[in-house]
Specification:
Layout lengths: L2 H7 L5 H25 L2 H38 L5 H24 L1 H8 L4 H26 L3 H24 L5 H18 L1 H7 L8 H5 L2 H25 L4 H14 L1 H22 L3 H38 L8 H26 L3 H19 L5 H34 L11
Helix pairs in contact: 1-14, 2-7, 2-12, 2-13, 3-4, 3-6, 3-8, 3-11, 3-12, 3-13, 4-6, 5-6, 6-7, 6-8, 6-9, 7-8, 11-12, 11-15, 11-16, 11-17, 12-14, 13-14, 13-15, 14-15, 15-17, 16-17
Length: 433
């Protein structure tokens, strides 16, 4: 058994169950973009690239925090024997409210958004709003499923979403469609279908329980949402920065998205760890097991480093060739050094995500936000330095992610040490430092 397999076996229950669904969804991202890259013109592919980036950055930034807070709260309630139905009701109202604001803003500013990002195509703005809606509802249900340990249903939702993206992408290609709208609508149809498949287990997971104060849900949601948005800025800034700073370089924009998707293979694998890790950390903290918390966190960081190495080395060696073969990228846009920065950035980003989850379950949402503000500031500073845009955005991703992870490690180390020296144990003594 290799070291990564040994470490994965030590992670929270449910990791393996989610891994299958995550693998399908991760593969779907590659296949969807690869088929679109071979079917569309470079200008149309640039529009799909920008829309995909917005869905995977702004959408995740706004709605993934709801899943995280639901997972944390529901897992802690499960330890106390309390049902999740009150949490689902309040989180559902909150999700609908956020979604209404987002779609309203898109409708109000549809013209400028279309002109600046989609070459005047307002249909893609409408698709963006519909994709946000599907993503929001999926994250809402996943929070309940992960918090109650129903990882089979969680993984099933991911697998159905990914499987439909693959099938629909090939269907568009076989039908001879050369439309950015057709390939963009895949991001709407697939998540809504996946949501319908898992409605029944979600209702089953939401057992009646005691009331929950609204403050318990929203007190950390603001900082967490801001943190997640900034994290998505860091991981997706390369494409958007190039679009905003040098919009005429459509071949580079499409190539950057292909390169980032390739370099972020470990992130899709990491997704299978993320939901179960948060649930596991929340459970051990609610049970007062500080040693279990530290042990689980340490092993998760080792897994992330292993994933970064396993995924990063092939990306650096083969990346420039693979993006041309798999995604139809224009030759000569990116080199091995660019992929090195992307691989380093992905590894540091995953470390920051693990450490950020630890901060979250310790109720250090503001510290997490401060760390992402620091990382984003570093990224922006490097991006705005004069020079080649491809080098700047790649280096900014790597150093910005490293800065955020390092800041989190410093703040988290002090918090864990304080808990270990002050937490009571059953015999009434304090734990040793």
């Amino acid at each position: 058994m290799n070291p990564i397999s040994k470490l994965l076996k030590a992670l929270p229950p449910g990791t393996a169950m989610v891994a299958g669904g995550t693998a399908v969804l991760g593969a779907a991202s590659y296949i969807h973009l690869a088929v679109a890259g071979h079917s569309l013109s470079k200008a149309d592919m640039a529009g799909v690239s920008v829309l995909w980036t917005l869905v995977m950055s702004v959408g995740i930034g706004l709605f993934f925090p709801i899943e995280q807070e639901l997972t944390r709260i529901v897992a802690a309630r499960a330890v106390r024997g309390e049902g999740a139905a009150p949490v689902l009701r309040k989180a559902g109202l909150l999700t609908v409210g956020i979604l209404a604001v987002v779609i309203g803003a898109l409708a109000l500013f549809a013209g400028p958004i279309a002109d600046r990002l989609f070459q005047g195509d307002r249909q893609l703005v409408a698709v963006l709003g519909a994709a946000f809606a599907g993503m929001a509802l999926c994250y809402l249900t996943r929070g309940i499923l992960a918090g109650t340990g129903r990882f089979t249903a969680y993984g099933s939702q991911l697998a159905v979403d990914g499987g439909l993206r693959i099938a629909l992408a090939f269907a568009c290609a076989l039908a001879g469609l050369h439309s950015a709208l057709a390939f963009s609508l895949i991001l709407v149809v697939a998540p809504f279908a996946a949501l319908l498949v898992t409605l029944s287990p979600t209702r089953g997971a939401a057992r009646p329980g005691g009331p929950m104060a609204t403050r318990e849900l929203v007190r950390g949601l603001g900082p967490l949402t801001a943190s997640t948005l900034l994290a998505q800025v860091v991981v997706n800034a390369a494409v958007m920065s190039t679009q905003l700073l040098e919009p005429t370089r459509t071949e580079l924009i499409a190539g950057l998205l292909s390169a980032l998707v390739l370099a972020r293979v470990p992130l899709f694998v990491f997704g299978s760890l993320q939901a179960s890790l948060l649930s596991g950390l929340s459970t051990v903290v609610a049970a007062g097991d500080d040693q279990g918390f530290a042990r689980m966190l340490r092993k998760a960081c080792l897994v992330v480093l292993g994933l970064g190495a396993v995924g990063g080395v092939p990306a650096v060696l083969l990346g420039p060739w693979l993006i041309e073969v798999l995604f139809g990228a224009a030759p000569g846009q990116l080199g091995h050094l660019d992929f090195l920065w992307f691989a380093i950035g992905t590894t540091c980003y995953m470390l920051a995500m693990v450490l950020g989850q630890a901060q979250m379950v310790l109720h250090k949402h503001r510290a997490q936000l401060a760390c992402w503000v620091f990382g984003t500031a570093v990224l922006l500073g490097i991006t705005l330095v004069p020079g080649d845009i491809a080098l700047r955005v790649g280096l900014a991703y790597a150093v910005g992610s490293l800065a955020a992870a390092a800041a989190m490690l410093l703040t988290l180390h002090g918090a864990v040490e304080r808990r270990r020296t002050t937490a009571p144990v059953p015999n009434g003594h304090l734990t040793e430092a």
